[in-house]
Amino acid sequence: MPQNIGSIRVLEKAGFHKEGLSKQNVKINGKWEDHLHFAIVNPNDTE
Q1: Is the pLDDT of residue 13 over 80?
Q2: Where are the domains of the chain?
Q3: Which one-letter DSSP state was computed for residue 40?
């Protein structure tokens, strides 16, 4: 979630990069929330 700064920092320190934002993508406690998407590329994967 965009407001979860601690989790975002952990992902970035682990080498993940933000790829995008899905607006109102996840329903939590009856409320639709935004969701950030992160990804990491394996440099050893040559295929």
Answers
A1: yes
A2: 5-39
A3: -
Q: Answer left, alpha or beta for residue 44, where phi above 0 means left and psi between -120 and 50 means alpha.
A: alpha
Q: How confident is the model at residue 40 (pLDDT cuts 50, 70, 90)?
A: very high
Q: Give the dihedral sign, CA 2/7/13/18.
A: negative
2: which 2 tokens? Answer: 């965009």
The Cα–Cα gap between 43 and 23 comes to 30
Residue 40 neighbours by CB under 8 Å, 6+ apart: 14, 15, 16, 17
Q: Residues 10, 42: contact at Cβ < 8 Å?
A: no
pTM: 0.70
